[in-house]
Specification:
About 35% of the residues lie in helices and about 25% in strands. α6 crosses α7 (about 180-190) and α7 (about 180-190) runs parallel beside α8 (about 210-225). By secondary structure, it is of the alpha/beta class. It contains nine helices and ten strands.
Amino acid sequence: RGSGFGRWLGCRTDGRTDAMTAALEAMVVEPAGESALLQLRGVTKTYLMGEITVQAVRGVDLDVQEGDYLAIIGPSGSGKSTLMHIIGCLDIPTTGTYTLAGIDVAGMGELQLAQVRNRRIGFVFQAFNLLPGMSALRNVELPLMYAGVSRADRRARAVRALERVGLGDRIDHKPNELSGGQQQRVSVARALVTEPDLILADEPTGNLDSASTKEILGLFRELHDSGRTIVLITHEHDVADQASRVVAMRDGQAEVIR
């Protein structure tokens, strides 16, 4: 199953990668609509907490088109984190359908979900999730390592990704040698290095000061302007205002704000 990092980076399947890739390609369905990247229909998520049933997500319908910049906003307990886990293929719906890049992912098993995460989604987290003993370059290489990319190719691609976020002169620095904003830029470079269909950012400015927050949001805007599809999860209205579209979560339900 790999490490905790392997869970969201996309763990290798030790000889079964080709078979798994073929299986995923066989699951491709017609896109949800013109240029649609992901579509959720009637998605629910229910948890059992002892004898209590908690419905964290209640019948969410959501479309994200290629090139969208969508913010999902809501207070703690609103269901936005659960919805983020479903969109990021870290969890599956209890009921409803979810297609990502034409792939029906709602009923997938753990290994299939790991493959989709590695090939289709770039993650940016509030806590950066960088390995402290590794350089910026090695941290950015990680998704490619799990995908089985050759050493020379993954180094070249990681250098390009770091240059893209303005850290070409920091490739050998470890996380503790970088500022918070620079660490988050490394995280963004890691999200970009696999050329994913979707960048999924979970509270990406939550651990940053105001100056670094402005820099990271500016970087997301640049990425969006270059055609990247971004879904950003936040509880901060000023952060959500940077997105082109906003969906508010409350009591497990989603409402389009703009």
